[in-house]
TrEMBL record:
<keyword id="KW-0547">Nucleotide-binding</keyword>
<keyword id="KW-0963">Cytoplasm</keyword>
<keyword id="KW-0808">Transferase</keyword>
<feature type="binding site">
    <location>
        <begin position="10"/>
        <end position="18"/>
    </location>
    <ligand>
        <name>ATP</name>
    </ligand>
</feature>
<protein>
    <recommendedName>
        <fullName>Cytidylate kinase</fullName>
        <ecNumber>2.7.4.25</ecNumber>
    </recommendedName>
</protein>
<keyword id="KW-0067">ATP-binding</keyword>
<dbReference type="InterPro" id="IPR003136">
    <property type="entry name" value="Cytidylate_kin"/>
</dbReference>
<feature type="domain" description="Cytidylate kinase">
    <location>
        <begin position="6"/>
        <end position="217"/>
    </location>
</feature>
<dbReference type="InterPro" id="IPR027417">
    <property type="entry name" value="P-loop_NTPase"/>
</dbReference>
<comment type="similarity">
    <text>Belongs to the cytidylate kinase family. Type 1 subfamily.</text>
</comment>
<dbReference type="Pfam" id="PF02224">
    <property type="entry name" value="Cytidylate_kin"/>
</dbReference>
<keyword id="KW-0418">Kinase</keyword>
<dbReference type="InterPro" id="IPR011994">
    <property type="entry name" value="Cytidylate_kinase_dom"/>
</dbReference>
């Protein structure tokens, strides 16, 4: 039996992580959060003391990067060299620098190889892989490819509701700055050929999950 690959891309705050996780849970699929891997590498590079603005310096942290990321949507964790960084990678200190490491081509190539290996080792029935370049670079041949979008206003509102303790303005500014930096490297705002757009602006969480599942079912 084939393992169905579901590729989900979208901007920050589109809800793609929580939606992808819920879809995986409902279908009994594995779940791979590729943003968490980029965050884990940013955490590692910072710790290794690299010059984050210098691409060659960032690349020097790759050989010592040991990533262990769970693909079970019910027991999610991320470890780097044995250290649990599941919570640390959500801190603004990491979120603020992740785009600097994600723009480095050698970093993208190394992480893409890791994601493809994890997907190829995943047993049936399937895996939901979520990120920015999954439908276009990591898994362009995936059976199901979805671009999850939402208006900027809705995305900023959802993200600031998640991050209690930070002002909505600060959250909004960081989100916009990150989208701007990220979109110079990967186009995750327009659907590539064959990619189905799910716009969640007018949908609640459950409706969005159902819309993605409907796309998956239409491809089976
Ligand atoms: O999805 P999340 O907000 O956790 O992603 C964190 C960062 O990782 C993004 O801002 C982007 O810089 C990077 N990323 C990427 N390609 C992916 C997933 C994430 O460049 N496939």
């Amino acid at each position: 039996e084939d393992t169905v690959v579901v590729a989900v891309d979208g901007p920050a705050g589109s809800g793609k992580s929580s939606v992808s996780k819920a879809v995986a849970r409902k279908l009994g699929y594995a779940y791979l959060d590729t943003g968490a891997a980029y965050r884990a590498f940013a955490w590692h590079a910072q710790r290794a003391g690299v010059e984050l603005e210098e691409q060659a310096s960032v690349v020097s942290a790759l050989p010592s990067f040991e990533l262990d990321e769970a693909t079970d949507p019910d027991h999610f964790f991320v470890r780097v060299g044995g250290t649990d960084v599941t919570d640390a990678i959500r801190e603004p200190a990491v979120t603020g620098v992740v785009s600097l490491v994600a723009r480095v081509p050698d970093v993208r190539a190394a992480l893409t190889a890791i994601f493809r290996r994890i997907a190829s080792e995943t047993a049936a029935p399937g895996i939901v892989i979520e990120g920015r370049d999954i439908t276009t670079v990591v898994a362009p041949d995936a059976r199901v490819r979805v671009l999850l979008t939402a208006s900027e206003e809705v995305r900023m509102g959802r993200r600031s509701a998640e991050l209690t303790g930070y002002s909505p303005e600060a959250v909004g500014e960081q989100l916009k700055a990150r989208d701007r930096a990220d979109s110079r490297v990967v186009d995750f705002m327009t659907a590539a050929d064959g990619v189905t757009t799910v716009d969640s602006t007018e949908l609640n969480f459950d409706e969005t999950v159902d819309a993605v599942i409907a796309v998956i079912q239409s491809r089976s």
